[in-house]
Each structure stands twice: as structure tokens, then as C-alpha cells.
Amino acid sequence: MKKKFLIFILLLIIGFSVYHIYNTYYKMEKVSEVIDGDTIKLSNNKFVRLIGINAPEEDEPCYKEAKEKLIKLVKSKTVRLESDIRNKDSYGRLLRYVYVDDLLVNSEMIRLGYAKVDEFKPNIRYSSLFLEMEDKARRANRCIWR
What is the number of domains present in the chain? Predict the structure, then answer.
């Protein structure tokens, strides 16, 4: 009986640990608005800056295309948010990798030429992937690389 109780407690601790880790690093939220090509607003009114990318600003070429693409990718969808080392930027926005199903949206925006790689240490988990996608977009002369 004592052994079964200890196993139960151990499994309970492991379960809570997995739950905590999952909720800390992978959270599901609905996107209510796309601000621009690298920032979104969630249904909980929090703003998210996509880690590792920098999309054009309003007065720059490809701004409209980048924003429209991000709208198509995430607006009104439930996305999975993955954190890295640094949690927020200087504006208080959450810094996250954003997934729609298995698609890493940050990488897709770079691959399609709607954003450039913008590395800020320590959030560099996918830097090599992002640099590879940027090279492909540049060689294909996509949007910002025209």
C-alpha cells in the first residue's frame, strides 16, 4: 500500500511538472488582430512580437504585403506560442515563436520574403533555420529582396 501511494505521488509530481513546462513554453491562444508583419494581438489583449524577424514598417516597401500575409496565416486562428529565453521586449510585448498547426510562422514570413532575420540574443533558438530561409528568399528575389 505504501509503495503504491509513493508511486502515485511521484506520478502526480511528474504530471504537474510536465503541465507547468508545457504551459510555460507552449501556450495556445487565439489571434484577434494583426498589427503589422511581425506583431499580433491575442484575444486576451496581449501583444506578441514574433521572435527573430523584422518586417517592413508602414512607409517601407512590402509593408502591405507582409501584413496581409500575416493576416492570412494567423488572424482569427488559434496559434501555439513558444517562448525562448527572454520573455518580453522593451515595449512589454511577449516575444514568441508562433505556430499554426506545424507551420512556424516566423520562419514562413522570412521564407516568403516578407521579413528579414533580426537576431536578438539570447532568443536565437531557430537562428540557423531563419538564416537559411532568408538566403532562399534573397536568392529568389522575394518581396523585400526585389
Answer: 1
